[in-house]
Amino acid sequence: SCLNAPIPSVGCPTMGQSAGAPTCAGRDWNEKFTDLQADVGAGFATAFYEKPYHKDDLLQSTLNAMPDRRVLDRASLTQRYPFDDFVKLDQPVVNLKLAITNDGRVYETDDRAHEFEAMRHKHLMMEFSLPGFSNVDMDTFVRIRGGGKVFTVFVNSDECPALAPIIRRCESEDDIVKVLLTVLSAGADSVNLTLCHQMLELEFDKVDVLQEQEDMCQASAKIITSYLWVRMLHFKLLPKADELQKFFAEVRTGKAKRDHIVQGMRRDGRFSAEEMDRFIEGTGGTRRLGPKTAKYLRMMVKKSRDRPFHVQRCDSNFQLPQLTARSSQPQFSARPSQTEGAGAEAKAELDDDPTNIASCVTKIVDQIKADSVHSKDWTLLVGWEPIRVTTVAQSLHEAQRSKVTQDEAGYIRNALKAVEISSKKAQKKANNDDGKQNDAKQALTTNDVAGILSASKTMLDSMVEHMLAGTMSRERFEEHFEKAAESIMDFLENNLLPIARKNGDKECIVLCQRSLADYKRYLYVWIPSKREKVHDIEMLYQLSTQMAANPKDIHPYSLVGLVGITNYAVFQGEVHRRYDLAARVCRNGIAARRCPLPMDLGTSQIFNWHLIGSNLIAFESFLVVLMVAFRHEDLVAHEAVEIRPTDEQASEPHAPPEEHEEEVSVASKLARSAAPAMPFACLGARDRLCLDRARAAEALPMPSGTPAPSRPLRHRAAPAAAENGKLRAVHRWLRSRPLYRWTEKDGDSDDDYDDGEEAEVVHHNNVLLQVRWVDQTEQLVCKVEKEEAESSSSSEDERDAVGRHSHKQMKGCCVEGGIKKFHSQLRISMTTGAPKGGEIDTFCLSAAVRVQHAVDGEWQQSFLAEMQALTGSSELQRRQVQVNMLDEVGDILDSIDHGSGVLVKKCRAGDQMLGIGDTLLMEGTFQGVSIGEAMLMLLELKLGGGKDRRQGLRQAQLPLSLKFLRAMEVAPEGIQMLTSVPYAEVHSHFTGFRDMAILSVKNSSTSPVSRADMFHKSGQSDIKATKAGKAQPQRLRNLSARRNPTSAGTTGCQ
Q: Which side of the chain, N or C, has fewer Cβ within a 10 Å radius?
């Protein structure tokens, strides 16, 4: 480098003494040179003046540093090609003068002003000889990068083999963070990152290169259209060490040790409630013994932006260097090795503080910019294009080039081009001239096949969306959809499948058979003329699932097998509209895999295994919309209860369930068995949730030693509808989860399902398996005239107005007749106890009801009968109970909804049994306090109190005098079902199905009555469309399986 060149013993040169001497920034160059001498020394300035630039033939120097002159493809960052195989411009014809700063910035020194600044700041000055066009302006094909302007990233994860590496062009640190989060959202623990800091790029037009090198061109030639010099570094982002791993290892040796370990973890006090929940969940059953479950992975995905990581420099194979003896943790390299390549050992230095993903990226970018100064460390990447796309490999290369630049249309077009080429060759001759089978498959990797199928599915989905939006005519849609689907089917049937059979590749055979069945299913659903030979589709699904279920051929939890089960079940729902058969497919698939879940399952396998259990529950569920009338005296009593934190209209849904309900999987079992002096850091998840909510709601100071809330708390003013006391009362009744089936798993109450485990719970001895309510209500008031009430009959006329909602809004609704009939019956029977001449309040409610399909047709009567049988826990409307023991306090906290004060489980307090729906009143011990303060008082009493834990709170002492209001009872004849529809067909309207007992609506502007009318009309149109006893197919959104883990984690009912 010229910075280290020996100082020549020459005097200061004289320049331009005449008036015409070159000037710099308005001053004579001699004066500038004198300033430079004063700044950096006379000898140093003279050296720069004599020979300021280091000259380099950049292309040849980088080629000489590569083994066998094999250059790296910029589209893949992994594939190398012999440089001599390309048609290219390789003769140096232009010179480019640049200066490179210490932080990797590059700027052109094309005048004396820039040269002087480069000399003044001692920047490295380079004069590169570059290939190009001698008769073309250099600015048209030279792109100067550097300074962190543009990066190329290659990201993958060892834990997600089904996730194809992501290669992207990024123009900021935020873009890099997004790519990393994409991989982390697939459930990855660690991330492999190759970061290329773009320094200099030459970009040529393919036609211009062809004209320049016409004598070298052949039909099969590959043309280099760009040279890109980058500084390439490789890193591993490793998560902070999981302290639970050693406990999981101990439990694997014998499950009996689990309780002992849990007690020790509680006494330790270092573990958060979330960590303890994860440990108990991960060791909760022999089939899910391990640190990874679908719920934990989803939580890990959700918090990926804040997860702490260590950054470790590694070689090009992502092999970690041997760490220094000072630390066992992988650390970030502050001064990386100058040598890159396979097997190159990076220098590891300590970095004891793991940081979040954004800070890691900033650290990496700062390092690579500082390491980009010397051109001898740059790596050459070439971009090439074929003269004409004639092979599958060339098509896939072009698809990958489009993917890097995020050209989705180009990616799909070129991926399907590969299918077209492969199919044509297979049709032309099944065997080559030498008798060997067509080896087109050998040019395709597993990721290539997955990419082709994904691209075709994306294109088909796009066509469907355009047709449904009205931007594509039905005729044009059917023509293009059928053509695209059949081309993929031909590729699978005539190319991949024969080769897989010849090679005995069982997994590929299953993949081809299942994919063929999928595309035939798409055609059946969307193209009416293709609704034939449905038996052939079913046979393909059966063949693939049977082969995948044979452990001698394929691993029981292989991805192709799990995907086949899910898609076969979706076929039964979409094509046959037989959700009982769809549930049977899921149940049989789970039953056929009784062996324990392996510890090394990938995230795609975990998510898709979980999806089978989730879909099973959806296929066995119906969405019911019904009208309910409560006893008038109960409704009035609950209306008088003060407004509480959760008393908001369901149309203003609570924070998304994923924000907190996943943290309540084990609920309060942790705190119940805790020692009295247990610190707040080890609270059970439910008690921790209570603490967070109550402190936020009451604006009380957090006690000392209390950790920060695990999630941001949302503060919202109660909507105007909350002023309606009757709606508040019904909403609290919904939060008590009437008819909810609490299942017991290893002694822990758990309302969730995990990894298909819900399919194995013992069914209750009745038709209903589960009831989940929707947290949205609508009040409809029936006017009762005095004369009508005394009359023995009443006609259904226009006087049956719907209070709170004008009759014009209800006019024409399909469900209006059912509502009017219900109101008419209530006017006649007067069973609600409403005063004569007054009003009868009715409410439109919704619930997801899971039933046994073996007795389908009876479940409606069973559901209505159980609803009618809901009665209070006592004849007394108000009861006073005395609590004398801490265990009873724990039972109440376990059984109560902390935000509303409503019991969700039966529990004993003193000598009385409290029932579901009973509401804690702010009387007796809790006179003058809010529900949030009351929950904190109970919680602190259970934990043993503490001087600094109850700042601003009065201390509760045993015995407690508590008052409860009896749950509301449904009035006799106070139920009318408006409509019911399979939940799988309408699941996209709701959230919370995956992890909560209570569902929320996505579009709160649609009222329950309007939603019932929409569902009812849809069901009626399906009945009319039924021909010869055959139901019309129905698309089931987002229930099919996904190989890509970034999609698999968000598939299914949310």
A: N
